[in-house]
Amino acid sequence: MLGTVLGAPVMLAWSWFLAAIVITALFAPWLSRVRPDLGWGAWLVAFAYAVLLFASVFLHELAHAVAGRLTGQKVAAIELNIWGGLTRFEPRIDEDSKRSAMTSFVISVVGPIVNLVLAAIGWAVLQFAEPWSVTWLILLAMTVANGALGVINLLPGIPLDGGWALQALVWRLTASQYLATIVASWVGRLIAVGFIVWSVVVPLLAGGRPELVTVLWMSAIAFMLWLSAGEAATHAKRARRMETYDLSRVIQPAIAATWDAEVGPTLDYADSVSQGQTLVVVLDREGLPYGLLDRHAASQVHLGAAGTSQVRDFARPLGAWIGVPEDITAPHLLESLTHRPKAQFCLVLSGSTLTGIIDLQEFFDELLAS
C-alpha cells in the first residue's frame, strides 16, 4: 500500500513491476538509438519514464475517484497494476436510475479527459525544452502516451472508460442497466477484434509485413478486452437475476430460544411452526444469538430427560451473522453484506422477532449459478 487518498488505500499490485520492466525494456533501446551518449543511463531514463507514466495513470484513476466522491460515491480503493489502474467504489443502491446513469457517465469520462489535458500540457512545455535533451525526450514520450491513453480509453466499448460511458448513455435512454451493459460489452468485443485486425491489416495496406511483436502485443490487449467485456456481460446477467430474485427460496423458518429454555417444549413449538424444518437460534444471557440448536442431538435425548435438558447443551456456534428485516430485497441484502463481509448467516426479523435464517453460502451458490 502506497498510502491513502480520499480515505481509500492506494495499492500497488505486484504486476506493476512487471509492467515497469516491459516499458523500460521497450523504451530504453529507442533512447539508446537517438541518444547513444547516454550509455547505460538510457535504462535509468527509461525506468523514470515508466514511473512517470504510472503517475499519469494514478492521476487518471484519481480523477475517477474525485468525480465519484463529488457525486456521493465512497471510494473503496485505487489500484495500480499491469493494465494501468482501477478505481473501486463501495456498492451503493440508488433508486433513481437516470441519476445513477449520469453519475456513471461523469465518473467514466473524467479519467481519459485528464490524460488528454496532460498530453496538451506536455505538448505546450515541449516548445520550451531543448530538442533531443533527456527532458525533451521524456516529455515527448509522456505527451504521446497520455494522448494515446486518452483516445484509446474513450473508445466506446467495455472495459474501456468510453465503454462505461456508452453503457451509461444507453442506460439513461432505455432505463435498462442490463441492456446497456450487454450493448457496451459487445462493442468492447468488436474493439478487441479491431486491435488485432489493425495490427495486421495496416502494415499490409502500406505494402509491408505485420511485425510479430506488434501483433502479439495487440493480441494480448485484445484478449484482455474480450475477457473483461465477457465478464461485464456475465455480471450484468447476474445483476438482472438479482433484481427479481425471491429471497423466500433460501429463507428457512426459525425461532429464537433463550439459553435456559427446555429442549422438549422448544422442539414442540418449533415443530408447530414448520414440522421438522424450523431452525432454533439459541440466545445468550444478554439475549444475543450465539448458537444453532442441534436438533438431531437434542431429539435423541431420552424423553424422560427432555423436559429438564436445556437448549444451550445442544447449541453449535452460530458464526458471524447479520440481522435484516423480512421485507429486504436481494440487492439490499448484498448492500448490507458489504459492511459485514464475513457474515455466514442472515437472521430475518419481523420487528424484533426472529422468523427465519438465510445460509449465505447457499444464497450465493444459487444466486451466482449459471
Automatic annotation (TrEMBL):
<feature type="transmembrane region" description="Helical">
    <location>
        <begin position="178"/>
        <end position="206"/>
    </location>
</feature>
<dbReference type="InterPro" id="IPR008915">
    <property type="entry name" value="Peptidase_M50"/>
</dbReference>
<feature type="transmembrane region" description="Helical">
    <location>
        <begin position="38"/>
        <end position="59"/>
    </location>
</feature>
<keyword id="KW-0472">Membrane</keyword>
<keyword id="KW-0482">Metalloprotease</keyword>
<keyword id="KW-0645">Protease</keyword>
<protein>
    <recommendedName>
        <fullName>Peptidase M50 domain-containing protein</fullName>
    </recommendedName>
</protein>
<comment type="similarity">
    <text>Belongs to the peptidase M50B family.</text>
</comment>
<keyword id="KW-0812">Transmembrane</keyword>
<keyword id="KW-0862">Zinc</keyword>
<feature type="domain" description="Peptidase M50">
    <location>
        <begin position="49"/>
        <end position="175"/>
    </location>
</feature>
<keyword id="KW-0378">Hydrolase</keyword>
<feature type="transmembrane region" description="Helical">
    <location>
        <begin position="105"/>
        <end position="126"/>
    </location>
</feature>
<feature type="transmembrane region" description="Helical">
    <location>
        <begin position="132"/>
        <end position="157"/>
    </location>
</feature>
<keyword id="KW-0479">Metal-binding</keyword>
<keyword id="KW-1133">Transmembrane helix</keyword>
<feature type="transmembrane region" description="Helical">
    <location>
        <begin position="12"/>
        <end position="32"/>
    </location>
</feature>
<feature type="transmembrane region" description="Helical">
    <location>
        <begin position="212"/>
        <end position="233"/>
    </location>
</feature>
<dbReference type="Pfam" id="PF02163">
    <property type="entry name" value="Peptidase_M50"/>
</dbReference>
